[in-house]
Amino acid sequence: METQLSWDESRAQDIIASKTGLEGPLLPILHELQETFGYVDARAVGLIAGALNVSRAEVFGTLSFYKDFKRQKPLGRTIKLCRAEACQARGAEDLAERFEQATGCRIDGGFHGGVEVETVYCLGNCALGPNALYDGEIFGALTDEALAALHARAAREGAAR
């Protein structure tokens, strides 16, 4: 994973300016801000609104609508666990329940021990479910052991940041 920068208004303005010429620039701006800083700082809302000549409410509405956009600096690392129908058919719900019991980490319950496990719906690897996404890599055919190992890796890597 690329090291993320601390919030820098000048860098954020550069990102916004680099995307304003695109058709439908709001989502690309939000994505690049998140990729650069690990979240979209509240101060970016006014910067984006001004640059795109839209209301702050429109920017905030888009930012808050999409679950993948974070509005505060992450407290650790995130594992995204697919719980869509294909993964459910391959045991994702039972896997999730056993994981929660074994670790005490509640899925969609925020950070626990420096790791957040959140639900997503479809990672596009349906034939090899259940699946998880971590640090841009898809992990398929998850077992209890594989998910526990992934969780331990995320905890180690989060502590090393």
TrEMBL record:
InterPro entries (UniProt xref): NADP_DH_HndA-like, NuoE_N, Thioredoxin-like_sf
Keywords assigned by UniProt, alphabetized: Iron, Iron-sulfur, Metal-binding
Record flagged with keyword Iron: yes
Tree of life domain: Bacteria
Stored Pfam families: 2Fe-2S_thioredx
MF terms (GO), sorted A to Z: iron-sulfur cluster binding; metal ion binding
Protein name in UniProt: Formate dehydrogenase gamma subunit
